[in-house]
Design brief:
- The protein has eight helices and ten strands.
- By secondary structure, it is an alpha+beta fold.
- The chain folds into three domains: 144 residues, no CATH class; 91 residues, 2-Layer Sandwich (Nucleotidyltransferase, domain 5), CATH 3.30.420.10; 59 residues, no CATH class.
- The two termini are 33 Å apart.
- 27% of the residues are buried.
């Protein structure tokens, strides 16, 4: 589903894994919101039904046991909400609530669940304005439920787009360009990931646009600034992205990070194939050294000993 734009092989896998992890968690939240919307609609429709003592016959009943659901190329654990339906059918049997989104014991994705990772990124890119469940994505969901799910997702997107970033204390930012593929759909998205002082990763911005476009990146970064994000100490990413020219105009104090392994990778692409194995060994050794230094820098930021990359380090 995700094709990440990055011209450095040693960083590509890391960025792809980070994005896949973030997207899976976002899709999980969307699935939970959809399940909650389905339960709420069911409860509303039967709220008037009472027993002889006036007690509701259809009520919530906690959550089901956690189970693993496959989404795209990964999986998440879900504890679906349960409903206690005490109504009886004409033949005297207990009625039962059955989710159309996540049927009992299902492990493999329905059409809606399969599309969640793509819907998540699309929704964040435009604030959920174009988000709607239609056609094969909606599957056999009734229109009222599809609309309620869409509204729940749009509300979550609005909260994301307007969230306050003034208290964030990111170690550095990680911009990236994504080519989305889902069936016949093709779309380019720009993303910005914030890396906290504890190494935690969080998607803080996403927007439609061309990765090479300075104007597209400028619009995205201005929205981050308007949400209160302080100028980051450093940023790490593909040097060919339009992010860098945009960042110079909005955050001139932000340093573009340059790692020695980037220069080695640039050299590798220009060597004869017979010489590349030797350089691959050097790249592997350099990555191990770089990871050790990154860990030391992270430890310094965690303890408050430093708030910017030290002079002369690979972060400059």
């Amino acid at each position: 589903m995700l094709i990440v734009r990055d011209n450095r092989p040693e960083r590509l896998d890391e960025l792809t894994r980070t994005l896949e992890r973030i997207v899976l968690q976002g899709a999980r939240e969307m699935l939970l919101q959809a399940l909650e919307a389905e339960v709420e609609l069911y409860l509303e429709r039967h709220r008037h039904e009472r027993d002889a003592r006036g007690h509701a016959l259809v009520v919530r009943n906690g959550r089901a046991r956690r189970r693993k659901i496959f989404l795209g190329h990964g999986s998440v654990e879900i504890a679906a909400p349960r409903v206690d339906d005490r109504r009886l059918s004409e033949d005297g049997r207990r009625r039962r609530f059955t989710s159309r989104i996540l049927p009992p014991y299902a492990r493999r994705a329905t059409t809606l669940i399969d599309a969640l990772p793509l819907l998540y990124l699309r929704a964040l890119s435009d604030g959920g304005r174009s988000l709607a469940l239609a056609g094969d994505v909606a599957g056999d969901l009734e229109p009222a439920l599809a609309e309620r799910i869409g509204e729940a997702w749009r509300a979550a997107c609005r909260r994301f787009a307007s969230s306050d970033l003034s208290r964030r204390d990111d170690l550095y930012l990680r911009p990236g360009g994504i080519h989305l593929r889902h069936r016949s759909d093709r779309q380019h998205l720009l993303v910005v990931i914030g890396i906290g002082t504890g190494g935690e990763e969080e998607l803080i911005a996403a927007g439609a646009g061309e990765p090479d476009s300075v104007d597209c990146w400028s619009r995205l970064l201005r929205r981050l600034r308007d949400r209160g994000l302080q100028p980051p100490a450093a940023a790490v990413g593909d040097p060919s992205l339009g992010f860098w020219a945009a960042a110079r105009g909005i955050w001139p104090e932000t340093e573009p990070s340059r790692f020695p392994s980037e220069r080695l990778t640039w050299l590798r692409d220009r060597l004869p194939p017979s010489l590349r194995p030797q350089l691959d060994e050097a790249l592997a050794a350099e990555r191990r050294r770089q990871q050790a230094r990154d860990s030391a820098l992270l430890a310094g930021w965690k303890t408050g000993q430093s708030h910017r990359p030290p002079a002369g380090s690979d972060w400059e």
